[in-house]
Task: inverse folding
């Protein structure tokens, strides 16, 4: 695949899956044996169904979730993007009851593309800042 096609995959993940909550798009975007490494629970996620569950959990807690890709670069079979997501905490998340807090999550994702689908992702999110905004941990 071309680097432009790989960039399109990254953009579709943000727009279709995260922003629209279209979990059916995951079957088109992710390889069957997809693996994600991230600071969220579980820290290593395997398969499309597990990823669909994660998307569902985020959307249940943050139904107005919306993100932007701030930068996207691709080389060979790797595509990376820097993103910003904003939402309001309206449902239970990681054992935390809704706070009504507006939150912002920033991060970077590196994805390896294989046969036109994302086979593996490495997610680096500013989780501590996110949890501080929810009020679950105190500021340093």
Result:
């Amino acid at each position: 695949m071309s680097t432009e096609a790989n960039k399109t995959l990254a953009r579709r993940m943000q727009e279709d899956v995260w922003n629209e909550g279209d979990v059916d798009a995951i079957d088109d975007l992710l390889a069957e044996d997809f693996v994600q490494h991230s600071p969220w629970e579980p820290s290593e996620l395997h398969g499309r169904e597990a990823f669909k569950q994660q998307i569902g959990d985020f959307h249940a807690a943050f139904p107005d979730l919306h993100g932007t890709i701030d930068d996207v670069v691709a080389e060979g079979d790797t595509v990376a993007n820097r993103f910003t997501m904003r939402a309001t905490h309206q449902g239970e998340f990681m054992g935390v009851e809704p706070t009504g807090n507006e939150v912002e999550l920033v991060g970077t994702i590196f994805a390896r593309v294989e046969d036109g689908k994302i086979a593996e992702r490495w997610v680096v999110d500013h989780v501590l800042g996110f949890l501080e905004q929810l009020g679950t941990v105190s500021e340093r």
